[in-house]
Amino acid sequence: MPNAQQATKDESAVIRGVPTGLWIDGASRSATGNAVLSVDDPATGETLAEVADASPEDGLAALDAAVAAQESWAQTAPRERGEILRRSFELMTSRADELALLMTLEMGKPLAESQGEVAYAAEFFRWFSEEAVRVAGQWSMSPDGATRLMTLKRPVGPALMITPWNFPLAMGTRKIGPAVAAGCTMVVKPAAQTPLSMYALASILQEAGLPDGVLNVVTTGRSSAVMAPLIGDPRLRKLTFTGSTEVGRKLVEQSAEQLLRVSMELGGNAPFLVMADADLDAAVDGAMLAKMRNMGEACTAANRFLVHESVAEEFADRMAQRMAALRVGRGTEAGVQVGPLIDEVSRDKVSSLVQGAVDGGARLLAGGEPVGDRGWFYAPTVLADVPADAAMLTEEIFGPVAPITVFSSVDEAIFQANDTEYGLVAYAYTKDLATALHLAEQLDTGMVGINQGVVSNPAAPFGGVKHSGFGREGGREGIEEYLETRYVGIRP
Ligand code: NAP
Question: What is the CATH number of domain 270-457?
């Protein structure tokens, strides 16, 4: 049972150490009219802190700072930009415990997972510190031999970054890292529910030597009203968003006015395929990771378990045992493996998806109900025989719920896996190389995990197809999102 205690001394000290004003031009300042926004602990519902609540004018002041810094930042030597990222990586690593505690407090995930996210987030800075000095153009002769063709790379210009609450640091560093490396300035708007991690990150980047105005952070309780004037401002050149498909679609429409360069990392509905020949021990381990990382609140979370009929019963039983044994509670407590969901709306959505599936005939093998009388906890849940028309098979569950359905042939598995408007990631377990390669080619997603339940890796291009968005973050591709190609024709 969750123990909904109040913030301890350590917790209060960590929160007090974070600047809570708008971060504009290298300084923390109040919002217009001293407006504030409260940040709550999802494990208790208690208010942890208040942060500045920006007005549209405050948002534009942040863009002014980014625009003013753009030219000199673009001229800063790549090595210097890389060294700032490298120092930021080191500072994040040395302060991993404080950053992890802060993240657990505002977002809810268990401390061990927050520590994992701090390491993952910092790795984007290390990766892009190395990429900063590898940006190159080309030189070639035109086919008729008359002209030389030279291409060079330029930073896109000021970028707006809008990030979600589920990975409060990593979704930021995945954008900030390549933008710093490429020479872009930026305005970052973190989710209203998890602003503290981003403010902590802004002060780390400053300590690492990032010049004032390169990174500006605004928090607001009126995202739409505060972001729209920036997106419509001709000085902004790039919009990068991580969040829901619904909001992403609106932002793409808004970005058409100024024809912005756009990257969209949106929702998912990941299938997790267990083939007849799969190593079941490995498949269950992978399934637990793919499902329970971040309490299921991940765009990459396995949303549908498609299991071959010959192994479905055993897989479901083992999953039910593993899920039922997980310890639910406040993420700061030792031994807790499952924290609260982000808020009441999210928990109620999970409850109603489970109820809908059970009403439609699904068999409940574990969980199936909220936990505790404070905070937004939901029991790890396993459902078998989930009917094909259950809403949880088409919508993002975003919670600790594993629905299992069966298939009888590889073709049927591929058809079911691809039968969704989303296309972020798919997972498959098989011992057969030919089946693995066939699945890697046929699954209609931006990423495929073969015999592994986590695909996120700063050195790999993260991103989706279809309604999961476009653009890639991380890998060699990541920096390209922040660069333009200029071609120069030279007649010798
Ligand atoms: P969300 O509601 O779309 O919000 C994401 C961000 O957009 C927040 O900062 C939010 O601010 C802001 N926002 C909302 N409406 C806006 C508007 N009209 N104009 C400008 N900004 C607006 O998503 P979420 O609930 O935070 O995050 C969960 C979603 O993110 C899931 O669908 C998940 O799959 C997706 N996600 C995708 C990836 C990926 O890489 N593909 C990674 C992580 C998460 P407020 O906080 O003020 O609402």
Answer: 3.40.309.10
Ligand 1 center to residue 249 CA distance, Å? 11
Alpha helices (runs of H) in 162-235, residue ranges in sequence order: 170-182, 195-207, 223-231
Q: Measured between alpha carbons, how far is 38 from 190 in angstroms, rounded to an integer? A: 14
Q: What is the pTM of this model?
A: 0.98
Q: Classify domain 8-266+469-488 at the CATH class level.
A: alpha beta
* Residue range(s) of every CATH 3.40.605.10 domain in the chain: 8-266+469-488
Helix (H, G, I), strand (E, B), or coil: what is residue 449? strand
Written as one letter, the residue type at 287 is A
Cα–Cα dist 63/286, whole Å: 43
SS3 484: strand
Q: Would you say 449 and 462 are in contact if contact means Cβ atoms under 8 Å apart?
A: no
Which whole-number Å values give the CA distances from 278 to 22, 318, 428, in the listed order?
51, 14, 9
Q: Are 48 and 20 in contact (CB under 8 A)?
A: no
* Vertex 275: Cα angle to 298 and 391 (nearest 5): 45
Rounded to the nearest 10 degrees, the angle between the axes of helix 56-74 and helix 223-231 is: 40
279: Cα within 13 Å, side-chain hemisphere = 9
To which residue do tokens 């042939």 refer? 409
* Amino acid (one-letter) located at 244: S
Cα angle value 225/231/233 (rounded, 5°)? 110
Residue 106 falls in the annotated catalytic set: no
Location of each CATH 3.40.309.10 domain in the chain: 270-457
Given ligand 1 and candidates 55, 233, 242, 249, which is best to mutate, with the most ligand atoms within 8 Å of its CB?
242
DSSP-assigned letter for residue 7? P
Pairing relationship of beta strands 22-24 and 47-52 according to DSSP bridges = unpaired
Q: List the catalytic residue out of 265, 297, 473, 481.
A: 265
Residue type, 413: A
Residue type for 155, please? P
Tens of pLDDT, residue by residue over 141-161, are 999 999 999 999 999 999 999
CA–CA separation, 338 vs 365, rounded Å?
18
Compute the distance from residue 223 Cα to the ligand 1 centre, in Å: 10
For ligand 1, atom 9: residue with the closest CA = 191
Pick from 236, 188, 228, 227: nearest CA to 70? 236
Q: Are the beta carbons of 270 and 424 closer than 8 angstroms? A: yes
130 is catalytic: no
pLDDT tens across 279-331, in order?
999 999 999 999 999 999 999 999 999 999 999 999 999 999 999 999 999 99
